Fold this protein.
Amino acid sequence: MDVHVGQKIHSHKGQKDIQSVPGVKNIIAVASGKGGVGKSTTAVNLALALQAEGARVGILDADIYGPSIGMMLGVPEGKRPDTRENKYFVPMEAHGLQANSMAFVVTDKTPMVWRGPMVSGAVMQLLQQTLWNELDYLILDMPPGTGDIQLTIAQKVPVNGAVIVTTPQDIALLDGKKGIEMFRKVDISVLGVVENMSVHICSNCGHEEPLFGHGGGERIAEEYDTTLLGQLPLHLTIREQTDGGTPSVVAEPDSEVARRYKDIARRVGAELSTRERNLTGSISSVSVTEH
């Protein structure tokens, strides 16, 4: 006997009833209070894990100063997205994901020497002028910290929930708390915390050692009454696979690391399903020109 399991993913309300983005049911922000905690690696693997669960998923690289999603998804350097009407981007396809990034429209040797309003404007343009095709989830890979881009997104983008990435290290936990506080102040619900680099696993003998401390993710989740979505090891293969353009979830879908990402994806979907539904639907953008 064959058993087929499916899911129907609904659109949920963002903060302050901001208008939905055309072609996108739900937007999930993946954020961190500081850099270097594996936020982008987590964002890419979460997107791929949600897709493995049967959802239609896209990812937007909102880290304008340090875009890395293209490399992580194996998009060749110099490849550019198609455009429509000289105004809209067609998202790149990579491992089944729809993706867009500032890295697709500039070279990796072009530093973004921009002030805050220019950067925020670029993020909004990438989000609103990309022809997302019927996504259940759009993952926003946020820049680290709590600055201009985060504030602009909170004010103008209907974010349905945020995932905070941290490590067990005390300084990372401190910054992770700031990230949670920021989202709560702007009425964006925090779906939970991912503790990255939880333990180091020796590639020779398999010995596990908590290099950055122990239990930090559990403490921060308990303190802020949110969920510990999962713990990921500090392992050589995660870095190698992501740097090589084939993240763990697609490189080794049956591995322990991929299983952990898929567990996190299920918990994210479950947490989001408890939020209030958006029954209004999205209004397509209309462009009016004079002749």
Remarks:
- Residues 253 and 259 are 7 Å apart (CA to CA).
- Residues 282-289 have pLDDT under 50 and may be disordered.
- The longest strand covers residues 24-31.
